[in-house]
Amino acid sequence: MHIETVLLVDDDPDIRRVGELSLSKVGGWETLTAGSGDDALRVSASHPVDVIVLDMMMPGRDGLSTLEALRAAPETADTPVVFMTAKVQRGEVQSYLDAGANGVIAKPFDPMTLPDELRRVVTPRTEQA
């Protein structure tokens, strides 16, 4: 999968800042940010993105309800969504995948390897070979 634009959604401004630097400087992608699920829906409706990196635990609209709304919107129905969360027990990860996420990246993340990890999660195995 070719990635040009990433939307990073997290309610923590420090995580947004570090993640944006990682995705733009290390990954070389245009990186948009949103501080809430509602902001993510507004941004993704007006700016086409290739991948959405979504925090699971946010006040108001959490990651799962944001994912549900993204899947219901025509402009993001097929956009890969990757949860970035500290809740990465096997059962939790499976529930995110069952809900329609394309993958999960554990927090805390390494800013130097985040782009590679994101690529690995959203690239089908057939393209990785």
Summarize the structure.
This protein has 129 residues and is α/β, with parallel strands linked by helices. The protein has a single domain (5-121), classed as Response regulator (Rossmann fold), CATH 3.40.50.2300. Helix content is 43%, strand content 19%.
* Fraction in helix: 40-55%
CATH topology: Rossmann fold
Structural class: alpha/beta
The H-level CATH homologous superfamily, spelled out, is Response regulator
SSE string, helices as H and strands as E: EHEHEHEHEHH
> How many strand elements?
5
The CATH class designation is: Alpha Beta
Cα distance spanning the termini: 13 Å
Shape by Cα distribution: globular
Quick check: average pLDDT? 92
The biggest sheet, with number of strands, parallel, antiparallel or mixed sense and barrel status, is: 5 strands, parallel
- How many DSSP H or I helices? 6
Low-confidence stretches: none
At CATH's second level, what is the architecture? 3-Layer(aba) Sandwich
Q: In total, how many domains does the architecture comprise?
A: 1
Q: Which percent range describes the beta-strand content?
A: 15-25%
Strand order of the largest sheet: 2-1-3-4-5
Whole-number radius of gyration?
Answer: 13 Å
